[in-house]
Specification:
By secondary structure, the chain is of the alpha/beta class. It is built from 21 helices and 32 strands. The protein has 3 domains: about 10-80 and about 255-260 and about 275-520, Rossmann fold, CATH 3.40.50.12780; about 120-250, Rossmann fold (3-Layer(aba) Sandwich), CATH 3.40.50; about 530-650, ANL, C-terminal domain (GMP Synthetase, Chain A, domain 3, 2-Layer Sandwich), CATH 3.30.300.30. Strand 26 (about 500-510) and strand 27 form a beta hairpin. Bound molecules: ligand 6R9. Belongs to the ATP-dependent AMP-binding enzyme family.
Length: about 650
């Protein structure tokens, strides 16, 4: 297939979608020319307790920097996701849960069920002293209790901080400390591909070294494993919710009160606690979920079955497993397991089992499945599918074509949604009834989003078909509001590189048709299987090892993961740079951060290429890791050009 393939919108889609091409143009223009009017109307999709009169109060400039939306209004997002649907949709499935093991019992929670669970658990939180404005750490696998815990926090105005259940005790402890939560919600164990993840044991370990203020751990009994419980600190979820009332009135929450914190990796320092607030985020998730996936009930009033395969530990799980679909009264499928268990057909079996109409996943999973051949796909029906989504990293045209032709049988538009933890929801994406598709392009901006490209060095705006650093020129309601505990770092990280603009960290190309093509991170963040990893984080973990003097980490191309982790390590004098040590370092990083940070290559390096002022020249390290060594560029500014020869001679994959 050529690079310039274009897939026009089918007439069926154009005629039936919520947004067709003309509507897109009209709404987009209005959203930019009259943001106040546009968002005043769009925000009516939520039920407000006290209606807002103020709409947009935002500035990216240093003098009057600030971001607030709908700030004199009040609402409750849990009530928007639950209570308001009960009268007409109480018996409609809100969450369909598919377990890791396909022979285990699934669970279907109607809106009535979910509402009751959330009210009960909100009362448990209150009984344990959690009050409005506090933080609650959630370290749970993909089970319905995760959504219950999130919505219970939202109900009482506590901010949740979810830590992905694949993170190590060390990483968990750091995140609990940073947001100073006194309560942790976890499970006895998680299950993924038949493997047990010792979540409660991880929490115990985290609390040994960190987070000494945690006074309560609430434990979901999931696998039934025999785990130690600390009588003074730990309680079982099922016992706690059975003891309390099922009635809990939603708190009145200001639009700008925190909804959650989610830690994400940046180019420097520790992971940042990205802070999202209630009103704008709620509007953004609901709106984008509806328009991007063309999500609405069938003609007979029944729900489309929608499945976002992301983990709730990432922002995609927050916005598109929980808040977006539930705010819209939808049916959200939640899957505990992995794509290759019990075999490579699992995704497609689930789609057939529940007649999934909308499926949303990451390119890394698609590439891994594509490798195994079409047979695993074609032996299933998938006739129910209508829309396919992609998220987390650039989707290479080859994987796109496979998704489109083999999985979707040329019938389903692919929405390649570009966005970030920081943006709350979709920013650049096709809409199924409005946008002609180009494989590999996230295409055009969502309403209210003004992307632009700047010259990375000069910071000047670039016009027309060109390539540059991707910035956003003005605020949108779903934008993050701060870094928890460090508002100054928020400004510095995102608004100081190119003054007056939000800098995304991504590089991007814009073509003649105004389509955006994300090329990947241009900062020191690498994207491993769609998960963000700061090179600085992996380096800090490595240098904690007693035998490591210095480390530098860069990304390398990887067929399935998109990017892999390439670590250059200088050991302390007298160390034997053995394969055994190499393996030990890999295990060390897994223990410090978690399996997603597993280095793919460890190269021992007696010296790292540095400038005379001592700065590591990552450009050179990246080229070597990419095996692009014919063109190392100017090495004359190096303090010791000889180190490069050594690096080249000792490449593990040379
Ligand atoms: C939602 C999410 C954000 C980074 C982002 C970019 C990459 C996400 C993408 C994409 C190309 C897409 N990214 N979606 N790149 N096309 N459709 O993934 O958030 O974990 O914060 O990562 O992921 O590099 O800057 P997050």
């Amino acid at each position: 297939m050529s690079d310039n393939a274009v897939y026009p919108v089918s007439s069926e889609w154009a005629n039936n979608a919520i947004i067709d091409a003309a509507t897109y143009d009209e709404k987009y223009r209005r959203s930019i020319e009259d943001p106040e009017g546009f968002w005043r109307e769009e925000a009516q999709r939520l039920d407000w307790i006290k209606p807002f009169t103020q709409v947009k109060g935002t500035s990216f400039d240093q003098q009057d920097f600030g971001i607030r939306w709908f700030w004199d209004g009040t609402l409750n997002l849990s009530a928007n996701c639950l209570d308001r649907h009960l009268e007409t949709h109480g018996n409609t499935p809100a969450i369909i849960w598919e377990p890791d093991d396909p022979t285990s019992r699934n669970r279907i929670l109607t809106y009535n069920d979910l509402h009751e669970q959330v009210c009960r658990f909100a009362n448990v939180l209150k009984a344990n002293g959690v009050t409005k404005g506090e933080r609650v750490t959630i370290y749970l696998p993909m089970i319905p209790e995760a959504a219950v815990a999130m919505l219970a926090c939202a109900r009482i105005g506590a901010a949740h901080s979810i830590v992905f259940a694949g993170f190590s005790p060390e990483a968990l402890g750091g995140r609990i400390d940073d947001c100073a939560s006194t309560i942790v919600i976890t499970a006895d164990e998680g299950l993924r591909g038949g493997k047990r993840i010792p979540l409660k044991a991880n929490v115990d370990e985290a609390l040994e070294h960190h987070a000494r203020d945690v006074s309560r751990v609430i434990v979901v009994q999931h696998t039934g494993a025999d785990i130690p419980m600390d009588e003074s600190r730990d309680v079982w979820w099922h016992e706690a919710i059975a003891a309390g009332s099922h009635i809990c009135e939603p708190e009145e929450i200001n639009a700008e009160d925190p909804l959650f914190i989610l830690y994400t990796s940046g180019s420097t320092g520790k992971p940042k606690g990205v802070l999202h607030t209630t009103g704008g985020y709620g509007v953004w998730c609901s709106m984008t979920h509806e328009y991007t996936f063309d999500y609405r009930p069938h003609a007979d009033g029944s729900n489309q079955i929608y499945w976002c395969a992301a983990d709730i530990g990432w922002v995609t799980g927050h916005s598109y497993v929980v808040y977006g679909p539930l705010a819209n009264g939808g049916t959200s499928l939640m899957f505990e397991g992995v794509p290759n268990y019990p075999d490579f057909s699992r995704f497609w079996h689930i789609i057939d089992k529940y007649q999934v109409e909308i499926f949303y996943a990451a390119p890394t999973a698609l590439r891994a499945l594509m490798r195994e051949g079409d047979d695993y796909v074609t032996r299933t029906s998938r006739k129910s599918l209508k829309v396919l989504g992609s998220v987390g990293e650039p989707i290479n045209p080859e994987a796109w074509e496979w998704y489109y032709n083999v999985v979707g049988e040329k019938r389903c538009p692919i929405v390649d949604t570009w966005w970030q933890t920081e943006t709350g929801g979709h920013m650049i994406t096709p809409l199924p009834g409005a946008t002609a598709l180009k494989p590999g392009s996230a295409s055009r901006p969502m309403f209210g989003v003004q992307p632009a490209l700047v010259d990375p060095e000069k910071g000047t705006l670039l016009e027309g078909a060109t390539e540059g650093a991707l910035v956003i020129l003005d605020s949108w309601p779903g934008q993050m509001r701060s870094i928890f505990g460090d508002h100054e770092r928020f400004f510095q990280t995102y608004f100081s590189t190119y003054p007056g603009m939000y800098f995304t960290g991504d590089g991007c190309r814009r073509d003649e048709d105004g389509y955006y093509w994300i090329t990947g991170r241009i900062d020191d963040v690498i994207n491993v299987s769609g998960h963000r990893m700061g090179t600085a984080e992996v380096e800090s973990a490595l240098v904690l090892h007693p035998k490591v003097a210095e480390a530098a980490v860069v990304g390398m191309p990887h067929d399935v993961k998109g990017q892999g982790i390439y670590a250059y390590v200088t050991t302390v004098a007298g160390t034997d740079d053995s394969d055994e040590l190499r393996r030990e370092l890999v295990q060390w990083v897994r223990k410090e951060i978690g399996p997603i940070a597993t280095p793919d290559v460890v190269q021992f390096a007696p010296g790292l290429p540095k400038t005379r002022s001592g700065k590591i020249m990552r450009r050179i390290l990246r080229k070597i890791a990419e095996n692009d060594v014919g063109n190392l560029g100017d090495t004359s500014t190096l303090a010791d050009p000889g180190v490069v020869d050594d690096l080249l001679a000792n490449r593990p994959h040379a």
